[in-house]
Amino acid sequence: MHEAPELWLTRIFNDHLADLGNAALKLVGIQPMARPWATYVVMELFVAAVIVVLFAVLRPRLSADNPGRLQHTFEVVYEFLHGQDEEQLGEHANHYLAFCGTLFIFILFMNLIGIIPAFESPTMFPAVPLGLAAATFFYYHVAGIRENGVLNYAKHFAGPMLFLAPLMVVIEIISHMARPLSLTIRLYANMFAGEQVTMIFLSLTYFAIPVIFMGLHVFVSLLQAYIFMLLTMMYLAGAVAHES
Length: 244
What we know:
About 75% of the residues lie in helices and about 0% in strands. It contains nine helices and no strands.
């Protein structure tokens, strides 16, 4: 079985930043390697850098009197995210918009970058959706504990009827543990399948059909970023809700 060729950007990182990569691996107890940078890690860092640069360019150009196209675009995105936040979190709206909005934009950019032939979508590697799902899992539990306190948050797992509490605790624990797995598989499977379909049709023809499937890839990228964010908001809404 042949290994996939190393992406050009990954090759640059491994050729020139191998020591930095191994230093990072050492922090988590992994032995040094000749080429420590994985493509999905490099692509995540690249996407994060693109987002930082984009907003660094946008911020000084913000204007209430004469907004540009880029500002208009992100105002539409903000209004959409804010509307979803209010719908899902109600009185807790705006408290968690920064996390959910960042999650949406980061996932969307990672999904879309795979359309560019010289790059790959990090989200089609299982480790990336798993990391995002783990961050979501810990974030909404921390938010629930911060909002309700440890004891009151624990009551969420017991259900409304005391005699059913032992059964409900088991069911709730299984349900919560399944959430990161569900988020991971949904994002990974859809992006991996979309990437493979696009690449297959690109290899067959270079005219109308690839354009159709690239459009489908954009749609799937938007949809999966939205679903991941929406589920995160729903989990947050359940976690920060006050017991009556």
